[in-house]
Amino acid sequence: MTELPPQVKIWGELGLMLAELAVEGARQARKRMRRKRRGAYQVRRPGVDTPMWNACAALLKVELQPWGAKVRLARHLGIPKQRVTDFVTNGSRMPDAETLLQIIEWLARRHAPAVAPIPNDSHPK
Are the CB atoms for 87 and 93 separated by under 8 Å? Predict the structure, then answer.
């Protein structure tokens, strides 16, 4: 093969460098456009993405209106009253799974009708 003139060689090398940069740019763009996965370390915040928690928080707001209800719930859960305020009033936090189960149990007890004790009819008279 014949040797290329220096003026053409420069343009050829420049074209190769531009091609390499284009490939690297496409690779980086693809990486940035990839869907971000939600890591286990990320905390879920209350909002539009948490409709079940929003419903539970609405029920809690109604139940916590009487004076001292937040304190009683906080004592039942074993957490500071400020945490209950963060869950319900501020909407800045969500409880962990165990605390949420305790809240649901507390709500269920508040809504359950008073049940009369079952008489013991097993003894013959």
Answer: yes
